Amino acid sequence: MPILRERKELELIVWPENRQCDRSWLLENIPGAAGVIVLLSEQVNDELLDKAGPSLKVVSTMSVGYEHLFLPALAKRGIRVGYTPDILTDAGFGRIAQATLARLVPFGIRQCIYTGNPAASAFSGSSARDHALAASLSLPAGAISRVPLTDLAVRSDVLFVLAPGGPETYHTVDADFLRRMKSSAVLVNPSRGSLVDSDALARALREGWIWGAGLDVVEGEPRVGTDHPLVNEPRCVILPHIGSATFETRLGMATLAAKNVIGGVLGETMPTELDLNGQA
Q1: Strands (E), 190-264
Q2: Mean pLDDT across the chain, nearest whole number?
Q3: pLDDT higher than threshold 80 for residue 118
């Protein structure tokens, strides 16, 4: 990227091919590096950090999620971490959820229920923001409202899982949640594979708890083969995690990742640094 190449004080080593970086190449080239930019598919663990050695100051991941980073090992070594959280995500019924709803309304959607972080608020019903959004989409008053998680499962015809990954949201959609859903319901997950229990979802599809599923993410990616419990389910459509695969979005993520690695290497402010306090 120009933002990196114009920094003459930095020596760049770049994976030369237009495909996922080989693990062996990364391990061969990382010794002595001060910083590294990785993708969601690359495991940053003790093996990689040991190879890098004490020179490594920063790991910058071009992703919203950071489940592929072994945070305790990074914190123990004093290595800073950058990520790209502000390109696609919002908390609660934020920009992404609202944009999703705006695209669904032309297909006849007349009611939207949602839930947020249970620890953030116990509020249920329609907020002033919900009323304003409904009006802007020409939906009736009260068409958008927040409900408890169990109600979301029971009442939804099409359920979109739009949340960050991590321990707090791990298997939010589990067997109990799926059993509560309508047998005619469709589950859509464009967020993180860890949000949905794959084994439970496969059973739900197989036994008719729900009608179908559309997934851009699954547990275990990118190592998803024919033995994955969801791959052979006829009522499950899986895409290879391409929800952010627009030129504008990827360019924004790459630029932010580059700025993070520059800040970390030079000991400057990183635009979006992950707080590792309590991880070591």
Answers
A1: 212-215, 236-238
A2: 88
A3: no
Which residues lie closer than 8 Å to 183 by C-beta, 6 or more apart? 208, 209, 210, 211
Q: How many CA atoms lie within 13 A of 108 on its CB side?
A: 2
Integer angstrom CA distances of residue 236 from 53, 170, 242: 43, 21, 16
More confident residue, 71 or 129: 71
| Strand partners of residue 36 | 59
Q: Distance between CA atoms of 173 and 215, rounded to whole angstroms?
A: 13
Tell me the pLDDT tens digit for each residue of 150-203.
Answer: 999 999 999 999 887 778 889 999 999 999 999 999 999 998 889 999 999 999
pLDDT for position 89: 43
Q: Is the predicted pLDDT of residue 117 greater than 70, yes or no?
A: no
| Contact between residue 253 and residue 247 where contact means Cβ atoms under 8 Å apart | no
Torsion angle of the four alpha carbons 22, 24, 29, 33, in this order, in degrees rounded to the nearest 10: 90
d(CA 44, CA 58): 12
Beta bridge partners of 59: 36, 81
Q: What share of the chain in percent tops pLDDT 90?
A: 62
**215-272 tens-digit pLDDT:** 999 987 777 888 888 988 999 999 887 666 566 777 888 899 999 999 999 999 999 9
Contact 193, 208 (CB under 8 A): no
Q: C-alpha distances in angstroms, 140 versus 87, 98, 159, 193, 250?
A: 31, 16, 20, 34, 36
pTM over 0.90: no
Q: Measuring CA to CA, how many Å separate 23 from each of 57, 72, 73, 81?
A: 20, 21, 19, 20
Domains of the chain: 2-87+246-274 (3.40.50.720), 95-238 (3.40.50.720)
Q: Which residues are catalytic?
A: 241
Contact residues for 116 (Cβ-Cβ < 8 A; gap 6+): 91, 92, 93, 146
